[in-house]
Design goal:
- This protein has one helix at about 65-100; strands at about 5-20, 20-35, 40-50.
- It is of the alpha+beta class.
- A 3-stranded antiparallel beta sheet has the order 1-2-3.
Length: about 120
Amino acid sequence: MSISYSWQVTSMYTLPEVEGETDVVVLAQWAVSGTDGTYSETLGSNTTQFTISADSPNFTPYDELTEEQVVGWIQGVLGEDGVASYEATIAGSIDSQANPPVTPSEQPLPWVTPSEVA
């Protein structure tokens, strides 16, 4: 089963000014979705906080940020294991949709006739 994953930033929070830079992103809310073409799953309402680095040479003004860049920050904070964990959770959910688990059902006792059941 091949699953395609999509990461989306749903909102960002900024501080008005940090060491001369304005509208500095300090928190992002995001969701990650996956689909195998038939089944899909989304894990939403996730939040990642960013550490503010005064000496970051790569500061990007807020109005120049791209979703791809912010998703990269989120995945950087999560690390490879964190990203893999979210994607594995989605894969497990999609697998359960495609192959629902079998639930045991109660059966009448074979030695009891229906008239004996009260």
